[in-house]
Write a structure and sequence with these properties.
Layout: E1 9-13, H1 18-29, E2 33-38, H2 41-53, E3 57-62, H3 68-80, E4 85-90, H4 105-133, E5 136-141, H5 156-176, E6 181-188, H6 205-215, H7 224-235, E7 246-249
Parallel strand pairs: 1-2, 1-4, 2-3, 4-5, 5-6, 6-7
Helix pairs in contact: 1-2, 1-7, 3-4, 4-5
Length: 261
């Protein structure tokens, strides 16, 4: 994908853990110069250290995606780094669950602020960079929650935020195709990440893991590296005619009916 003498640059949000970290490491192996960003400076630094341990190249930036000024500064740093920005993966996201009739307005706003507005602010800067640089590939992070309700319930805010991501993927793909910019979303199923167990009591995680695995047609949860492989394909020239797509990597979750007879 990249020239070792002048690597293309990729920025990954939420790269301190989970799918974002796995994508950053996969990209480093693939020759990208990876801009690792996260709100957690220690987690960001750990991922960047892992990038360097692989022999990859990159830089780290502490970044709150909801802060437009901070996003602008991060992209200013990208411009000072090696290679043009050719890739973006927006893995930053949160979940604040609960029944809709009990969900506080502040929690609703925070989920949409991070997952939707934060994604937009980063994409906005990336689009401007890629328009100047001759194109690129943007991969957003969707969710099955954008299309179906989770049996466990309590995902109204999260589902709404990811529904917006699905719509954003399609509209941006159409608007920016003329500039050589492709926009797609990966739609991960249940994946072993910190976000997966957010709000689940520690003593319940093992039981929940077994229950979730039984409900996935493939019979198991995904590893972050499996989702990252789909992200890297969408970033690569191998997907050069793919834009505006929601690429499921969900173990068959969205294909499954809950009716068993």
């Amino acid at each position: 994908m990249t020239d070792a003498a002048s690597p293309s640059a990729l920025l990954v949000t939420g790269a301190g853990s989970g799918i974002g970290a796995a994508a950053a490491l996969a990209a480093a192996r693939d020759g990208w110069f990876v801009h690792v960003t996260d709100t957690d400076g220690d987690a960001m630094a750990a991922t960047l250290d892992a990038v360097h341990a692989l022999g990859g190249s990159g830089a780290g930036h502490v970044l709150d995606v909801t802060d437009a000024a901070a996003v602008g500064r991060a992209f200013a740093a990208v411009r000072q780094g090696p290679g043009p920005l050719r890739g973006l993966f927006t893995a930053a996201g949160i979940d604040r669950g609960g029944p809709a009739h009990e969900l506080e307005a502040a929690q609703w706003r925070r989920v949409l602020e991070v997952n939707t507005t934060g994604t937009f602010l980063v994409v906005q800067q990336a689009l401007a960079e890629m328009m100047r640089g001759g194109g690129g590939s943007i991969v957003l992070c969707g969710s099955p929650a954008a299309q179906v309700g989770f049996a466990a319930g309590g995902a109204t805010a999260y589902g709404a935020s990811k529904g917006a991501i699905s719509s954003m993927t399609r509209t941006l793909a159409v608007d920016y195709a003329r500039y050589g910019i492709r926009v797609n979303a990966v739609v991960p199923g249940p994946t072993e990440t910190p976000l997966m167990w957010a709000g689940v009591p520690a003593e319940e995680v093992d039981r929940m893991r077994e229950q979730v695995a039984r409900e996935v047609p493939l019979g198991r949860m995904a590893r972050p590296e499996e989702i990252a492989a789909s992200v890297l394909w969408l970033l690569s020239d191998g997907s050069s005619y793919t834009t505006g797509s929601l690429i499921g990597c969900d173990g068959g979750v969205l294909a499954k009916s809950s009716i068993s007879v």
